[in-house]
Write a structure and sequence with these properties.
With 226 residues, the chain is α/β, with parallel strands linked by helices. Helices cover 22% and strands 35% of the residues. Strand 3, helix 3 and strand 4 form a beta-alpha-beta unit. The C terminus is likely disordered.
Length: 226
């Protein structure tokens, strides 16, 4: 049976310690990505693997990376062709083939990096992939994948195409779609409202679906279709 891996990214906007502890408790393994190690340590957690070039991690975190005794270390030269997250996802593929991924500390900070993160996560097609932050749960949906959302009446839902020729259906929301095209990064699916059990399906292309909440920390993956 495939496992679930928490990937703690290096955004300067850090998820709360409560959320990190909850997500780590739901997952089988934890991967810290550069400065993400500080978020892990700040929540009183450990990790299985550290991946990065150690250019943004704190001095205390770098000392642990240098020691390489508390966790496995995949350290890379800062002058590399790929971001730390790209290398971390490659590490997940090698270590735990077919693993479901939950990414956190992934959406804040520099806007160019945040967009790159979405692109990298969208490229992970091995298994379901989620983004879990304090104010949002998101799911990357590839062609043929769907998300059932229960118990979220009144919450804001958005879906944005991350690939050309994306076609989606949405039911159980204020404005429903039926095999409707979404323009690449267009605003057609922004700021919908959940009215009942919601069913969201991507027929072609790739999209990121967001469920926004106010102070609610949900269980990532509990609303996924079996």
């Amino acid at each position: 049976m495939a496992c679930k891996v928490l990937v703690v990214c290096g955004s300067p906007v850090v998820a709360s310690a409560n959320l990190l502890r909850r997500l780590a408790g739901e997952c089988d393994h934890v991967v810290a990505v550069d400065r993400g190690l500080d978020a892990v340590l700040g929540a009183g957690l450990g990790c299985d693997v550290y991946v990065g070039d150690a250019d943004t991690v704190s001095d205390a975190g770098r000392a642990l990376v240098d020691a390489a005794v508390a966790f496995e270390v995949e350290r890379h030269d800062p002058y590399k062709d790929y971001t730390d997250l790209a290398l971390a996802l490659d590490s997940v593929r090698r270590r735990w083939p077919g693993a479901e991924v939950v990414a956190t500390c992934a959406t804040g900070g520099r806007p160019d990096m945040a967009l790159s993160v979405l692109g990298l996560l969208a490229g992970y097609e091995d298994a379901p992939i989620w983004i879990g932050e304090d104010k949002v749960v998101a799911r990357i949906l590839h062609a043929g994948e769907s998300w059932t959302i229960e118990g979220a009446e009144g919450k804001t839902f958005s879906i944005i195409a991350l690939a050309p020729n994306t076609e989606v259906s949405e039911h159980g929301l204020e404005w429903e779609l039926d095999h409707s095209p979404l323009g690449l990064l267009a605003d057609t699916g922004i700021s919908n409202i959940v009215r009942s059990t919601a069913e969201v399906e991507v027929h072609t292309g790739t999209a990121v679906a967001y469920l926004l909440h106010r102070g609610f920390i949900g269980t990532v993956g509990e609303q996924e279709n079996p």
